[in-house]
Structure formats: structure tokens, C-alpha cells
Specification:
The chain is mainly α. It has helices at 12-25, 29-45, 68-77, 82-93, 97-109, 111-139, and strands spanning 49-52, 59-62. The protein contains six helices and two strands; from the N terminus they run ααββαααα. Helix 3 packs across helix 5 (97-109).
């Protein structure tokens, strides 16, 4: 990806916090600034979406609900389409339709990112299923 240089002044406290976070995460200031700026712009474009850190990395999520990939997976796996798929996913997750809509809008702009999360989760589930089956056979 092409990059561009920018020069900016930061509040001293923000700079210190950025330094600490960079050390904790093993990332440079520039990497963190790019990540946080990108996420901030995405949140501005997609109200109701936030970013959460976790063992697998930072991921988009509903501010008051599950990760976007979890919602999108249900929407994609329903036999319904359109508003019916939104309603089914909302019911499945115990969400409001507007929350599911927010996840779907984010997915519409970043399908590769969300499809990547779904693929990683599916791969991990397959690995765990295989390990469970091998363990079960070994103990039989």
C-alpha cells in the first residue's frame, strides 16, 4: 500500500500514551497513528461501529453488541434475503434491526476484511473439531 508523509503536533500526554501503547503492542508510533486514524474515520463513516482489541487482533464490532463478522455470518447464512435476513439475524443475536443494518453497512464497505475474519474463525473451528475428534478416538 502506498503511504504519504504527514507532520503533526500531538498533545504531550497523547504522545506519552502513544509511546506506552506502542511498547505494549510492539508497534511503531506511525503504525499506531495510522491504525487509530483509519479506525476513527471508519467509525465516523459507520455510526455504531467500534474497534476492539483481542488475541486475534483489532476487529470491528457493534458498539453495543457482537463483532461485525458474527452478525454478517448470520445474515449470510439465513435462507431469507433483504429485510427478512436483517430481521432473522436481529432475532438470532437478540439485536435491533438497526444494529444489524450497521454491521451490514460496514460489511458492504469492507467485505474482504469481514470475510477474512469469518474464514479465520472457520479454520480455527475446523482445527479444534479435528483435535477433539482425535482425542475422542484416542480415549475410546
Amino acid at each position: 500500500m502506498a503511504t504519504r508523509h504527514i507532520s503533526s503536533r500531538l498533545d504531550a500526554d497523547v504522545f506519552k500514551r502513544l509511546e506506552r501503547q506502542g511498547k505494549r503492542a510492539g508497534r511503531t508510533r506511525a503504525e499506531l497513528i495510522n491504525t487509530y486514524l483509519d479506525e476513527g474515520l471508519r467509525m465516523e463513516d459507520h455510526p455504531g461501529i467500534v474497534f476492539r482489541s483481542g488475541p486475534a487482533g483489532r476487529r470491528p464490532a457493534l458498539a453495543d453488541g457482537p463483532d461485525v463478522w458474527e452478525v454478517v455470518r448470520v445474515v449470510k447464512n439465513t435462507e431469507a434475503s433483504g429485510d427478512d435476513a436483517i430481521r432473522e439475524a436481529a432475532e438470532w443475536h437478540g439485536l435491533r434491526s438497526d444494529q444489524v443494518e450497521a454491521a451490514v453497512r460496514y460489511y458492504a464497505d469492507y467485505p474482504d476484511e469481514i470475510d477474512g475474519w469469518i474464514a479465520r474463525v472457520d479454520e480455527e473451528a475446523e482445527r479444534e473439531q479435528g483435535a477433539w475428534e482425535r482425542r475422542r478416538r484416542a480415549l475410546a
